[in-house]
């Protein structure tokens, strides 16, 4: 059996040495993977029961055009999302073009001139810097800053814990909205568990109960059995070309939370007074439903891939965040490879292991919204989808590659094995 698998790997260009090394690692992860499967099962039933409760039917897969009034599928899907997140309401739309857009919509729906935005967990995701207006001379037009919305940031302490004293001090009369990013993004800080997010929200609300707590939930959905809205978050925001789209959603974002806030978001997304009533779905309903249905399993596969990668590269002496044994709260794996050559070889390997565009080689280039040149490996069915096996690496110290996704664990394993093969072929790894 395992010999057949080995032969298959070798016929795909993996050497025996690389295969054996990776196979031993995969073998050692079986118990851990059982726990991931259990979380996936719990989430699967959660999604299934929500679909049953909201009476998902064939009519929900019909499409609307034009204004999109009375779109049964859209309304039912939003009810399903609200149920799964135990929230009052949801906005799940193809018109939310990406995660950054969903977050921007939420921020600009709630904040008014004179209000202040606080992040108590350090700098937010790169693409939000221009949204907030913290890029100095590089701020694009239309940032929150331009609209008179101020910003405060409290960093995590050295050991990754919350700086409660500084957070208390930062909350003031103007503080209207607190944004908490669950995933580490491009930072090498730890990702926050839902439990820790809950503790942070409780602390913030004990100082100023009326403050709105929003969680950037990107990459975190279905990794645990609870979501931030289960622990006091007023709003939770994410992208459908990450976990909750299950690899099938071709576009989209979601915002779930308190009804009053979701209505404000809908007024910002479409127009004041129109809100959730408009927004044609143009044929995406079935993919949104089916993707959400598959999302718990797909997320589990991606998570297994991330853990496998952590174990492979840690064993070879690289710094990995999260490390090989720690608990997981998102699907991103950072591997500090230490040189531009290694980041490039790693990404080329991931690309070569993809079902789409495996014949092209990625190169570093300047990307809007990012500080330095970035190399991106993405042989995906949906452009830029990062629930599919993908990797990116900013070409700057400490030369870390960020790896995520994999619609199946088997593909994730194959792609990571290929990344190692490429590094080996380039002479960047001596001994396995
Ligand atoms: C991906 C991501 C975003 C932005 O989403 P895009 O779809 O790339 O715009 C924001 N925050 C975090 C933590 C993310 O991982």
TrEMBL record:
It comes from the Bacteria. Gene3D superfamilies: Methioning gamme-lyase, C-terminal domain, Type I PLP-dependent aspartate aminotransferase-like (Major domain). This is Methionine gamma-lyase. It comes from Butyribacter intestini. InterPro entries: Met_g_lyase_put, PyrdxlP-dep_Trfase, PyrdxlP-dep_Trfase_major. Coiled coil: none annotated.
């Amino acid at each position: 059996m395992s010999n057949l698998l080995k032969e298959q790997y070798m016929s795909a260009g993996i050497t025996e040495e690389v295969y054996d090394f990776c196979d031993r690692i995969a073998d050692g992860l079986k118990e851990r993977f059982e726990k991931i499967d259990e979380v996936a099962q719990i989430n699967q039933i959660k999604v299934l029961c929500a679909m049953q409760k909201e009476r998902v039917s064939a009519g929900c897969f019909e499409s609307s055009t034009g204004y999109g009034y009375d779109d049964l599928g859209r309304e039912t899907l939003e009810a399903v999302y609200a149920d799964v997140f135990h929230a009052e309401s949801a906005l799940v739309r193809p018109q939310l073009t990406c995660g950054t857009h969903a977050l921007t919509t939420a921020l600009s729906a709630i904040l008014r001139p004179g209000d202040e935005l606080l992040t108590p967990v350090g700098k937010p995701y790169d693409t939000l810097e221009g949204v907030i207006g913290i890029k100095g001379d590089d701020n694009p037009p239309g940032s929150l800053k331009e609209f008179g919305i101020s910003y405060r940031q409290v960093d995590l302490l050295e050991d990754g814990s919350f700086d409660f004293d500084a957070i208390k001090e930062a909350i003031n009369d103007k503080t209207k909205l607190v944004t908490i990013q669950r995933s580490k993004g491009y930072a090498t800080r730890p990702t926050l568990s839902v439990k820790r997010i809950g503790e942070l929200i409780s602390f913030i609300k004990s100082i100023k109960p009326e403050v709105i707590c929003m969680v950037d939930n990107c990459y975190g959905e279905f990794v645990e059995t609870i979501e931030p809205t289960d622990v006091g978050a007023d709003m939770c925001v994410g992208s459908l070309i990450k976990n909750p789209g299950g690899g099938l959603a071709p576009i989209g974002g979601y915002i779930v939370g308190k009804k009053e806030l979701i209505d404000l978001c809908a007024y910002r997304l479409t127009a004041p007074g129109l809100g959730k009533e408009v927004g044609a779905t143009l044929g995406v309903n079935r993919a949104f439903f089916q993707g959400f249905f598959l999302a718990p399993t797909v997320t589990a596969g991606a998570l297994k891939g991330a853990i496998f990668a952590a174990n492979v590269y840690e064993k070879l002496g690289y710094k990995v965040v999260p490390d090989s044994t720690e608990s997981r709260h998102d699907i991103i794996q950072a591997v500090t490879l230490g040189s531009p050559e290694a980041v490039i070889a790693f990404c080329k390997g991931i690309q070569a292991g993809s079902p789409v565009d495996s014949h092209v080689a990625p190169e570093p280039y300047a990307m809007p919204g990012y500080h330095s040149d970035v190399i991106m490996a993405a042989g995906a069915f949906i452009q830029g989808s990062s629930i599919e096996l993908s990797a990116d690496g900013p070409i700057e110290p400490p030369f870390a590659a960020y790896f995520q996704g994999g619609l199946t664990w088997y593909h994730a394993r194959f792609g990571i094995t290929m990344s190692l093969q490429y590094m080996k072929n380039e002479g960047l790894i001596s001994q396995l």
